[in-house]
């Protein structure tokens, strides 16, 4: 049957893929990682040791930006796994654009821990000078998605996507943000340009996460 209708080609443009997984060695390494983090925290001379965006952070402790470079067995194993994970993510996303048989090798270039206490939060920000970033929920404490307590919120990068709403724009997911459940042992990988925040956290236990930035090269 012939029609006069032209062929319609769909082009998926400006996507922002995020990836979620669980660290298989979480139960085995959790206590060693927490012990090292708290020992490091006790040695800090100021709450935000990195001295980066101090006014955007409240009621939390942040390490210097070389946390995963420490000569500690648990941290070295975590770094190895995270770099493999980022390399796999980058290879999957970029496969159509890389030369045939090329593989991506990831290097974590900045990393830090956050120990967030009752009332703590981290205002909206993004991570420059890297391609892929991640958050590892080591000990979420009392954070939970239902109450939006201490969750990481990612914001729609399409600035005008919600300027008008009708049935034809329903596919845009116009809530304008995406909240991740703070599940212990979970790792979220995301492109560096995505603005995100850590919403205010309320709880008796500390909320402890490890965050990292990476660069990827072809090998």
Quick overview:
The protein has 219 residues and is of the alpha+beta class. It contains two helices and nine strands.
Describe this protein's structure.
It is a single chain. By secondary structure, this protein is α+β, with helices and mostly antiparallel strands. The chain has a single domain, classed as Jelly Rolls. The chain is 18% helix and 33% strand. It is built from two helices and nine strands, in the order E-H-E-H-E-E-E-E-E-E-E.
What labels would you give this structure?
9 strands; 9-stranded antiparallel β-sheet; 2 helices; CHP02466; alpha+beta; 2OG-Fe(II) oxygenase; Jelly Rolls; 219 residues
Number of domains: 1
Strand-residue fraction?
Answer: 25-35%
Assembly state: single chain
Name the helicity range.
10-25%
Please report the first level of CATH classification, the CATH class: Mainly Beta
Overall outline? globular
Rg (CA only): 20 Å
Topology, number of strands: 9
Given helix and strand content, the structural type is alpha+beta
The main sheet comes to: 9 strands, antiparallel
Which sequence of SSEs, written as H and E, runs from N to C? EHEHEEEEEEE
Q: End-to-end span in angstroms?
A: 50 Å
CATH architecture: Sandwich
Can you tell me the CATH topology?
Jelly Rolls
Average pLDDT, to the nearest integer?
94
InterPro entries: CHP02466
Pfam family, one: 2OG-FeII_Oxy_5
Organism: Neptunomonas marina
Protein name: 2OG-Fe(II) oxygenase
